[in-house]
């Protein structure tokens, strides 16, 4: 495998995984929109865990979402996908550490390490897809409510937490693709060499047969 490609992909994936955790903990998944409003002294914002209101004086009051079953479906799904993404990312990091070419684990062969790295890359990509699905679905719901003229609730805009999630998904998917790609590029030359060796052996065998016929 290409060690440089592996390390770069691994670092991108770890950075994306950390950014996923930051996005999940960020308070600003949705923030109050002041479009068409004359009251700007209070700002409201929410994430997957709580809703907060902050006055212009700096006083902030937050209320945690107490019941999971009382939440809307897209919030429940976004929570689950973000947590699954973090768990998949953690498992992928462990597999990557075991499979990187620069690490030594007993008598593990290069082929076995390559398969571990390839599996870790696939899991990283799946983790990135989970994050991308969660933040995109959440953002789509905000945009839908904002553009609905019959929506009577508080209208919100996209918050920083969503942008962090999109950045995290991009890093993880890119890094996972690099890990998978490094394994394919490393395996292709070996396959070509083995094919050439088989062809040479076959040609040598044919020459031996022809020579034996002339001798007889």
Automatic annotation (TrEMBL):
UniProt keyword annotation of Hydrolase present: no
Topology within the bilayer: Multi-pass membrane protein
PROSITE patterns: CLAUDIN
Pfam families for this protein: PMP22_Claudin
Keyword annotations: Cell junction, Cell membrane, Membrane, Tight junction, Transmembrane, Transmembrane helix
Compartments reported by the entry: Cell junction, Tight junction; Cell membrane
Record bears the keyword RNA-binding: no
Sequence intervals crossing the membrane: 80-100, 121-140, 160-183
Main location: other
Gene3D superfamilies linked: 1.20.140.150
InterPro entries per UniProt: Claudin, Claudin_CS, PMP22/EMP/MP20/Claudin
One function term, GO molecular function aspect: structural molecule activity
Similarity comment text for this entry: Belongs to the claudin family.
Function: Claudins function as major constituents of the tight junction complexes that regulate the permeability of epithelia.
Protein name from the UniProt record: Claudin
């Amino acid at each position: 495998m290409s060690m440089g490609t592996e390390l770069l992909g691994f670092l991108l994936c770890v950075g994306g995984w950390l950014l996923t955790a930051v996005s999940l903990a960020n308070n600003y998944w949705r923030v109050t929109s002041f479009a068409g409003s004359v009251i700007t002294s209070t700002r409201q914002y929410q994430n997957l865990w709580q809703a907060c209101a902050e006055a212009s004086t700096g006083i902030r009051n937050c209320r945690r979402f107490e019941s999971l079953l009382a939440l809307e479906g897209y919030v429940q799904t976004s929570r689950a996908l973000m947590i699954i993404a973090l768990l998949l990312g953690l498992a992928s990091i462990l597999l990557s550490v075991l499979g990187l070419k620069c690490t030594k684990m007993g008598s593990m062969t290069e082929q076995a390490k390559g398969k571990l790295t390839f599996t870790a890359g696939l899991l990283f990509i799946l983790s990135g897809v989970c994050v991308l699905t969660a933040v995109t679905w959440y953002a789509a719901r905000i945009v839908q409510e904002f553009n609905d003229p019959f929506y009577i609730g508080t209208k919100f805009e996209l918050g920083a937490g969503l942008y962090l999630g999109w950045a995290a998904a991009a890093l993880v998917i890119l890094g996972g693709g690099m890990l998978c790609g490094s394994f394919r590029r490393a395996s292709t030359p070996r396959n070509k060499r083995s094919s050439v060796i088989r062809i040479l052996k076959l040609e040598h065998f044919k020459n031996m047969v022809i020579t034996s016929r002339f001798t007889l």
